[in-house]
Structure formats: structure tokens, C-alpha cells
Amino acid sequence: MITASPAGRQHPPAWQVALADAITDPRELLALLDLDPALAPPALLAAGSFALRVPRGYAARMRRGDPADPLLLQVLPRAGELLEAPGFSADPLHEAAAQAAPGLLRKYPGRALLVTTAACGVHCRYCFRREFPYARTGAGRWRQALAAIAADPSIEEVVLSGGDPLALTDARLAELSAGLAAIAHVRRLRIHTRQPIVLPERVDGGLQRWLAGLRSPPVIVLHANHANEIDVTVMRACERLRACGAVLLNQSVLLRDINDTPAALAALAHRLADCGVLPYYLHLLDRVRGTSHFEVEQQRAVHIVRALSAMLPGYLVPRLVREIPGETAKHQIATGRADD
Description:
The protein has about 350 residues and is an alpha/beta fold. The protein has 2 domains: about 15-80, no CATH class; about 95-330, TIM Barrel. It is built from 12 helices and 10 strands. It has helices at about 15-20, 25-30, 40-45, 55-60, 70-75, 140-150, 170-180, 195-200, 205-210, 230-245, 260-275, 300-310, and strands at about 100, 105, 110-115, 155-160, 190, 220, 245-255, 280-285, 320, 330. The chain has a 10-stranded mixed beta sheet with strand order 1-2-3-4-5-6-7-8-9-10. A hairpin with an 8-residue loop joins strand 9 (about 320) and strand 10 (about 330). Helix 11 (about 260-275) crosses helix 12 (about 300-310). The chain is globular, with a radius of gyration of 20 Å.
């Protein structure tokens, strides 16, 4: 027998239920994937400083019994995170120095990036903001950030980042976008998000209504690193985003033993194209403390992209870039490829 809910009580949307049910214990993740329990002790140690979080739907795309699965390696805490490495630091992009207001970063002319929340659907182990001071950001600080944006007419584009901005509720997103819409010189809204990849349930009717109601179609920059991340649920989420008029791009990070071959990147590009998403950037690793085991040396990256350009049309080859603190744009690394 199904009983009625108390008057006025609404069930949370499916994406919030899925987010609350995410895997947070490395032992549970290893058991679900039939992996050696001996992997648990180092994972638990590494998770002590940066917690594990994996949606169950994302874990379901991993290969059972394979400790080298490319999705697993992106999220499983490992002993390498506990090692100190020269050149790796807590704030490799000097974002603390770029804050114009709490959570508002001014790195490049004409743009401002707003760190909207600390929440994220998945904790990627290579995250360059794993030590970001999120206590100074969030909805309670938006008024200061909006005031700083309004005071600077050179800001034509605002980038919503995090954490993950789509970890915010639809009501919070509407509150923020209304504040931005009141600033006449802000012409474009860009959203950097991994939620449609790791938690495709997030792209529901409520989010679609918010996107469709924006002053102009947003640019949504997704974050997928491997073709296996994109299943039918992700493809449907991308279709729903496109139906709202959003422009869809993707940025990846080049990660050792995960996507550091031309074949892996070509497969990802084809899968993205099937979803109506254009590859945009391929980032060299931001050298945040605890991530040195992911790094791919720059010259090897150049060879990979050069080989990739021989396999794909130019519009499917992402630009190889590195972010260098203080520069006025992403630093594009020459690969010798010719676009077509």
C-alpha cells in the first residue's frame, strides 16, 4: 500500500537522492567492483585529506575486477597522493592572488569566474581546487561578488564554477542568474560542470526550465576524460541540454594511464561528437599537491596530440593548453598539427 505524503512535503529531485547516496567509503567501492581489499588501507589514508565521493551510476560504468579501469583511477584515493613532489603545491594557479571578491576570480580580461559552491558530484583525485578555501565562497558571499562584477564594465562574461555549479538547487541557480541578469554589461554566462557526465540525473525538467529562461543561451563546458564515461544516460543528458539552446564544449585533463594515448583521446572525441559536444581544451595537469602520479610530460603530450591530429578532423582535436599564473589567457602549446 502506498501512503500519501504529508501535505506540502515535496520529494527531493532524483539527482539530489542520487547525490546523497554516492559512495564515500573506499572499501564499499572496492567491494562493488570485486577488487582486492588490500587496496583499501592506502585509499583510506589518502581519503583522510580529500574524501572519496562517487555516484553509483558512475561506478556502474567501471569494469569489475579491473584495478586499472580508467574511470576508477580518476576517483580512487591512492598512496601517490601522500607523496611530496617538487613543483607541486596547494595553489598551483595562484588563485588566492586572483580573488577580486570572495570566490570571484579575475584571471583574464573581459571575464570573471565565480566559485559558486564547494559541492561536487564526484571528487576527482587530480582536482586542482582540492585545497581551495571554500569557506570564503558560496551563496552567502554572492552579494559581494555581484557588486564587484557590476562595478567593472569590462566584465562581459561570467563563468560559473566550483566545486560544481550544478550541485546548486534550481532555486539557487535562479537567484544567482537573476543577479547577473541585472548587470547590463554581462553578455554571456558560461557554466563549467562535470555533473552531466557523472550525475546525468541532474539534467532534469527543472534545470531545463532554468536554462531556457536565461537571457541568452549559455555556453556549457563539460568535463569528460574518457569515452567510457559517456553512456546512454549521458548522451540523453546532453540532448536535453542542447534542446535548451546551450552550446556544448568539453575540456579534458591529460592523465597518465587513463587517457594518455591517441586511441583513447580519439575514442573520446568520437563519443563527444555523437553527443553534439565539441572537444575544446586538453589540459596539461595543474600541479596541485598530491597529484604528481597523474602527470604526463609536456613533450609526450605534444606527440600524442600530433598523432591524434592525424586520426581526426581538425574540429575534433582539442587544443593542448597549460594554465600559467599571471598570463592573460590559457597558454596554447604548439603541436605542429594543421587544422582542416
